[in-house]
Design goal:
- There is one protein chain.
- The chain is α/β, with parallel strands linked by helices and 347 residues long.
- Helices cover 42% and strands 14% of the residues.
- It has a six-stranded mixed beta sheet, with helices on both faces. It has a four-stranded parallel beta sheet with strand order 5-4-3-6, with helices on both faces.
- Helix 3 packs across helix 4 (78-89) and helix 4 (78-89) packs parallel to helix 5 (112-119).
- The radius of gyration is 19 Å and the shape is globular.
- The termini are far apart.
Length: 347
């Protein structure tokens, strides 16, 4: 782990983030002791888990002399918000290539993360899944021809340098647990591109913590995601110089709470958002943290945890993504049918 301290890193986050008790939520669920690791308070833009990854990723970009960051993800992406904010903080331009229903999609109403991207002055290009690779290639070539030095942040930061952010977070969490006199049994979080989970699994195993890491997939496809996380853990261990490997049997991912597709709101996700707000004043979003909270609620109700277990819920941020879902969340809260479940901006 000593090599972790020697890796290039630029400080972007307010660390350590708090580790807080959630007694009202635990009582409401009749469940185990629940603690919340508040990585929504990392301090870059609206906070979130990607800030930890960007500390290592942006250090590499600076070392290579980059003046423009090129990256992308879904239309209302938390990753895009964090990446654009990091670029602006470090004096760089940012081009965001986002997935949308049609090429060049531009909604009449700007809301949530899309509004934040616009306010930060990011150059936004929207493409469908079928054309997005071509748009990336054309964008990189165009920027070089214009005299810029673009740096591509791929896979939403889920590469070995980005994984280091959550190896470091695991170290931080252990230190806080010791200070609180707590033994952590489980850690549950939302898993999308797999980088956060890879870092947590790698850190937990390398330090022989006994913590069982549970990923709540935000998209269907448990087998595919499991293979991806295994590969990323093993690549990252090699990157750190650790003689360590994991197999698929060491990765625990649930995709039952994802719903039919990425970003699709379900009753379970809406309940999770409402319950966290009502019990702890904790705001989640229906895509990531709403999914992981739905998984925590579901597993408690199924009797997965023992009463004396201590479970850490990792709040990975993304609260700005709550607001574009205001119509279905209002309907759910009033006991009415949701006007839509698949968001109109999804591609």
């Amino acid at each position: 782990m000593m090599k972790l301290c020697a890796l290039p890193r630029v400080r972007l986050a307010n660390l350590p983030t708090p580790l807080q008790e959630a007694p009202n939520l635990s009582k409401a669920l009749g469940g185990p002791r629940i603690l919340v690791k508040r990585d929504d308070l990392t301090g870059l833009a609206f906070g979130g888990n990607k800030t930890r990854k960007l500390e290592f990723l942006m250090a590499n970009a600076l070392r290579e002399g980059a003046d423009v960051i090129v990256t992308g993800a879904g239309f209302q992406s938390n990753w895009c918000t964090q990446a654009a904010a990091a670029a602006r903080r470090l004096g760089m331009r940012c081009v965001l290539i986002k997935r949308g229903p049609v090429d060049g999609y531009d909604p009449e109403e700007y809301d949530g993360n899309h509004l934040l991207h616009f306010l930060m002055g990011a150059e936004i290009r929207v493409a469908t899944r079928g054309s997005i690779r071509r748009v990336y290639e054309e964008t990189m070539e165009e920027l070089r021809e214009r005299g810029y030095h673009p740096y591509l942040l791929s896979a939403a930061g889920s590469t070995p340098p980005g994984v280091m952010g959550y190896v470091n977070a695991l170290l931080e969490l252990l230190s806080q647990a010791v200070e609180m006199g707590v033994k952590i049994d489980y850690l549950i979080h939302a898993s999308g591109s797999g980088g956060t989970m890879a870092g947590l699994v790698l850190g937990a195993k390398a330090l022989n913590t006994g913590i069982k890491v549970i990923g709540a997939a935000v998209s269907p496809g448990r087998e595919r995601m499991t293979k991806s996380v295994v590969e990323l853990v093993n690549e990252s261990a090699e990157y750190l110089g650790l003689d360590l490997k994991v197999g698929e049997d060491e990765i625990t991912i649930y995709d039952e709470y994802a719903g039919p597709g990425y970003g699709v709101i379900t009753d379970e996700k809406a309940e999770a958002v409402k319950l966290a707000a009502e019990t702890e004043g904790l705001f989640l979003d229906p895509v990531y943290t709403g999914t992981s909270m739905a998984a925590l609620i579901g597993l408690i109700r199924e009797g997965f945890f023992k009463k004396d277990d201590t479970v850490v819920f990792l709040h990975t941020g993304g609260s700005a993504a709550l607001f574009p879902y205001k119509a279905p969340l209002k309907a759910y809260g009033l006991g009415r049918p949701m006007p839509w479940r698949k968001p109109p901006w999804s591609g």
